[in-house]
Design a protein that fits this description.
Order of helices and strands: EHEHHHEHEHEHHHHHHEEHHEEEHEEEH
Strand content: 15-25%
Structural class: alpha/beta
Strand order of the largest sheet: 8-9-10-11-13-12
Largest sheet: 6 strands, mixed
Distance between the termini: 29 Å
Oligomer: single chain
Shape: globular
């Protein structure tokens, strides 16, 4: 058991959604946090069939429970499987003053089916793979290969575990819910996206690889976003003189291990292009989790010019940029993109996350770049010193 850092502190009668990708540990977390709560798991086929056919039974069965039990949050796991239950939840919140925690791996079916999302009556929380403060046995090489879904990080045969994860996602999340018409095309798309993870999205190239239209590829990407398997990172609009890219996003998977499995990548040492891409993906995982867990209201973007200058992550609202380098000694010549950005935006805090053994400050004229070992950066990030 890893101690998870997410806090769910709900006032009396306040309900909540908890969203997170498959196998991030949502169910285990809720069962440990609300040990005495009434728990409904819609993965159980008997409950799924019963409530799908006669959703009012859900309300009638709850209302006969012990009054003490009804004063605790009622947990519904995999709530997206039966969207109509949210009408019953709405009624019980309004008329019986009951409190719910509604857990799921995708809001896609709810949104697309115009389900009742409770009109602001439920707060939103997000659950992620393991993050730096939760990991007592931190091993970067292991993380880049196995990822940080708890069972994957602990697995003695992570390749089989990752293969099962992707296959279960295809069969249970995509095929069983009827999200796509042609599963083989979507599986081919997943493989293609694995190889282009963290790069500028080229819908036409992927469409050609998969044998589908560009519009279908866009829809497939949206499925990954809706099922919480990845993020679009958009280019910074904070441009001045340089000819910057401002319309093409990048896509990153939510977990570096899943991305590695799809690209058939194994990293044997912390060096080289593959390790660098995985390291960048991992740092983004931490940035995204920190942002969501702490309810930070900013966007994580990137900056790139048509001449090739690039900064991995830009937080415009905080005047902060972050560059990721899989290097044990970062030098000035490694930071052309960072320097170019600072020349245009001189009042920006610039961090470089690397394998350097000690923190140091690189000063160029009036420009300052703080180079931090990744452990130092992650500690500072989660204690609020970076953003």
């Amino acid at each position: 058991m890893y101690k998870r850092i997410l806090k769910i502190n709900l006032p009396k009668n306040q309900s909540a959604f908890l969203w997170g990708a498959r196998k991030t540990g949502k169910s285990t977390f809720l069962k440990s946090l609300f040990k005495d709560s009434y728990y409904i798991d819609l993965l159980r086929s008997d409950l799924y069939i019963k409530y799908s056919k006669e959703p009012w039974l859900f309300r009638e069965e709850l209302l006969i429970l012990n009054k003490k039990l009804l004063k605790k949050p009622i947990i519904i796991d995999e709530v997206q499987k039966i969207p109509i239950l949210l009408d019953e939840v709405h009624y019980l919140i309004e008329n019986e003053k009951l409190q719910f925690i509604l857990c799921g791996s995708s809001a896609r079916k709810l949104k697309r089916g115009s389900a009742n999302l409770l009109g602001g009556r439920a707060w939103g929380y997000h659950f992620f793979p393991l993050v730096y403060p939760e990991i007592t046995d931190f091993n970067l090489l292991k993380i880049l290969n196995q990822g940080l879904l708890p069972t994957h990080y602990l697995s003695v045969n992570y390749n089989k575990t990752l293969m099962a994860y992707v296959n279960d996602y295809l069969s249970e999340e995509i095929q069983a819910e009827g999200i796509v018409r042609n599963l083989p095309y979507f599986a081919r798309f997943l493989d293609s996206v694995g190889y282009s993870n963290g790069e500028l999205v080229n819908y036409s190239n992927i469409a050609r690889d998969c044998g589908v239209s560009s519009m279908t590829v866009k829809e497939y990407y949206q499925i990954l976003v809706d099922t919480l398997l990845g993020y679009f990172i958009y280019p910074s609009t904070n441009k001045k003189g340089r000819d910057t890219i401002y319309s093409v996003p990048k896509f990153y998977f939510f977990d570096v291990g899943v991305a590695g499995y799809l690209s058939k990548r194994t990293i044997h040492e912390l060096k080289g292009e593959s390790a660098g891409k995985a390291f960048e993906n991992y740092i983004l995982m931490e940035l995204m989790a920190y942002k969501k867990i702490h309810d930070k209201n900013y966007e994580i973007k990137f900056w790139r010019t048509k001449t090739g200058y690039e900064v991995d992550f830009v937080i415009e609202e905080k005047k902060t940029i972050i560059e990721v380098k899989i290097s044990r000694t970062v030098r000035k010549e490694d930071l052309k993109g960072t320097i170019a950005f600072l020349e245009e935006h001189p009042y920006t805090k610039a961090y470089v996350v690397s394998l350097d053994s000690h923190p140091r400050k690189l000063t160029l004229d009036k420009l300052e770049i703080l180079i931090l070992p990744y452990q130092h950066f992650l500690k500072d990030l989660w204690t609020g010193k970076i953003i």
